[in-house]
């Protein structure tokens, strides 16, 4: 019997952030963490080509530095991974 897996991302709107701000993501599973600007969040949601900062998070805490001033989002998902349920906490720390 096959198991259907739904790809359900969690997308957090961080609002406008300055270059070099740090976004802290705390996790309880191995998941994909992607920092996306406003231009790329739509293509990400549509599963088309987009640019991002991040990748597979294998540690419980991940700090990501914002590369430029702008409106930013954090997307967390399990696409291509074995994790099912996960918890995530996102904080801008600087």
UniProtKB/TrEMBL annotation:
What is the name of the protein in this document? DUF1883 domain-containing protein
Pfam families this protein is in?
A: DUF1883
* InterPro entries found in the cross-reference section: DUF1883, DUF1883-like_sf
What species does this protein belong to?
Amycolatopsis mediterranei (strain S699) (Nocardia mediterranei)
Residues annotated as signal peptide: none
Top-level taxon: Bacteria
SUPFAM superfamilies registered for this protein in UniProt: Atu1913-like
Q: Where is the DUF1883 domain?
A: 17-92
């Amino acid at each position: 019997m096959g198991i259907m897996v739904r790809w359900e991302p969690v997308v957090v709107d961080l609002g406008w952030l300055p270059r070099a701000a740090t976004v802290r993501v705390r996790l309880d599973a191995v998941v994909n963490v992607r920092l996306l600007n406003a231009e790329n969040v739509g293509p990400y949601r549509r599963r088309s080509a987009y640019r991002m900062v991040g990748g597979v998070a294998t540690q419980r805490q991940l700090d990501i530095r914002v590369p430029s001033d702008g409106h930013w989002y954090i997307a967390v998902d399990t696409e291509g991974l074995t994790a099912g349920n996960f918890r995530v906490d996102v904080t801008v720390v600087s």
